[in-house]
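JOB MANIFEST
job_type = single_chain_structure
chain_count = 1
residues = 301
[input]
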Amino acid sequence: MPPPPNMSRATGAAVALALMFILQTPVVIAQTTQEGTGEVVDVMMFDAACLNESRCDLTRPDHLVEYFAADWCEPCYEVSPLVNSVSSTEVLVIQHPSSPADEAYVSLSNQRFEQDYRLVFYPSIVVDGAALLTGSRQALDLNTALNNSTTEWGGMESIRVENGTLSIEGGGLEGHRLTMWVTQPTLNTAGNLTHTHLASRALTLNTSQGTLNLTNLSLPSNGTVVLVLESEGPKRLTVASLAPTGSMDLIGAEEPEDIGARDDAPWLLPALVGTALVIALAPAMLMHRRLMNPEPLGESE
């Protein structure tokens, strides 16, 4: 005997509801952070043009924004103007040409991308050496990340720049890494635009060395000299994006095989959804089978 029409309709409705539930349930891929041993301790800056004067006044910004882009990265051309717009006396921006394919490639920028921050994606933004922004909203989330970040820079009070010479007076920097970055407006022919704060040079300084003659380095007069003092080791990054890119292990991850977006297990998401779908539909399918194939009634005496 066929099942009553209302039972068939009920079974179909149950299957439809189960499908809607599975398809509308969001799948969340968590991003992880792990403890790192390194951290940015202090940041100071001065205009390279002051090297022609008797003394350079070093200033300490409230925030450091490090922007990692690449010439071949199309989304980077949309993010770059928004990142440059936050630059001010309180917010220092360094754009790192960290991809070996870049016209203005700087090896220390690549080291910062791969070793210091263990990044995977372009574009990426690191705020104050601690907060990571990736994904489609990273430029929009930048102001929020800056407002939520509190810095207590300090440690380079002993550094002076006089008569074109940088000097470290009294020491106190041992056990730290001191890097000098030079940023300047740089024309990018690939994208036909100017990178306002592109790192054009980088130099790791000996913290035990007393003086360094900067005039011998032929620094650009329109450039900015940035001194970053930090402890050695990978940095601990906290994901600050509302819509981050992918799933990544920021500290302790293996070296990426390919720079850019990476999907280590493309089969995982379909497999999880398929398994959940089978489990959710199993009761409805079993009920439907029983209704379509009822047990034969015994003969009455």
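[summary]
The chain is about 25% helix and 25% strand.
Residues 40-239 form a domain with the Glutaredoxin fold (CATH 3.40.30.10).
exit_status = 0
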